Amino acid sequence: EDLPGVDAAKGFYQKYEPKEVLGKGLSSVVRKCICKQSGVEYAVKIMDMSGSNEDNANISPQQLRDEVHREVSVLKRVSGHPYIVDLIDVYESTTFIFLVFELCHNGELFDYLTSKITLSEKRVRSIMKQILEAVDHCHQLHVVHRDLKPENILLDENLNIKLTDFGFAKILSEGERLWEICGTPGYLAPELLQAGMLEAHECNGYSFEVDAWACGVIMYTLLCGCPPFWHRRQILMIRLICEGRYSFSSPEWDNITDEAKDLISKLLVVNPNNRLTISQALNHPVFRAQRHSLSRGM
Ligand code: ADP
Ligand code: MG
């Protein structure tokens, strides 16, 4: 496979100087780094391939490496979009893989949200439009993301979004169905939970629609500051999701427009066949209204 700039780990350290930790995942650490020659800052995702990491105890080093190669091939496929993080460089050694990304100076949408508690509806509309455009780009290239959530949506210096973390993403062939359970509990679509719980002959698996569900969860969360499906006992939260039971409760939702609620309610539809697709969501009136007010110079 023609990975960009595949090289030994020392190649990375020759070119970049690693700095402070920006984030941590299951098998990776993300650090700021500086290109020694240009002084430009980047983010590097350093993945431990040695198998010594206890979180990866149940997966072989070769499986782990295959998964990172899958992440890289997806990144190469979707990169070059204004709302998707750009992969700059890849360095691969026997024990580590380094993925160098453009740096998103304003960190996670998650932290931005918690610092503000809730965002204005106008702001949420503009963020959601960017998220949907990024996901639409992925779907058009047959890539399903499977882990959309505010921790994986970063903000650049202008507070525009950059979608990242394609660690669970997959390129689907025509009509392909998926069965494996992956992602983050509160954002999982009902059909994905079902695929994880039922035998293969009892259900039809899942596909791109799981990303549209996650977008509904994200939009709800951005507008009211709390998730639509939550119970401290996870099994009961899963039941709420499978039944599609959530509400626009007072007072948090009193000042949110019917248009915004309408889009959320058309994304949080239990039957994936009746759920809006990402491109349908982009055509929802909630975004037309925004274009209108923008054209009046607001
Ligand atoms: P994981 O698969 O381990 O979740 P991510 O790719 O989501 O790894 O990165 C983990 C965290 O690192 C992100 O949630 C974010 O806080 C930070 N991070 C990742 N990439 C960047 C980037 N390009 N710029 C700034 N921070 C980043
Ligand atoms: Mg992540």
From TrEMBL:
Protein family (similarity comment): Belongs to the protein kinase superfamily. TKL Ser/Thr protein kinase family.
Reaction(s) catalysed (UniProt annotation): 2 ATP + phosphorylase b = 2 ADP + phosphorylase a
GO cellular component: phosphorylase kinase complex; Z disc
Lineage, broadest ranks: Eukaryota, Metazoa, Ecdysozoa, Arthropoda, Crustacea
Binding annotation for ATP: 45
EC class (word): transferase
EC identifiers of the protein: 2.7.11.19
UniProt keyword annotation of Transport present: no
Quaternary assembly: Hexadecamer of 4 heterotetramers, each composed of alpha, beta, gamma, and delta subunits. Alpha (PHKA1 or PHKA2) and beta (PHKB) are regulatory subunits, gamma (PHKG1 or PHKG2) is the catalytic subunit, and delta is calmodulin.
Top-level lineage group: Eukaryota
Residue span, Protein kinase domain: 16-287
Protein name: phosphorylase kinase
Entry keyword GTP-binding: no
Record-level GO BP terms: glycogen metabolic process; muscle organ development; muscle tissue development
Alphabetic keyword roster: ATP-binding, Calmodulin-binding, Carbohydrate metabolism, Glycogen metabolism, Kinase, LIM domain, Metal-binding, Myogenesis, Nucleotide-binding, Repeat, Serine/threonine-protein kinase, Transferase, Zinc
Annotated GO MF terms: ATP binding; calmodulin binding; metal ion binding; phosphorylase kinase activity
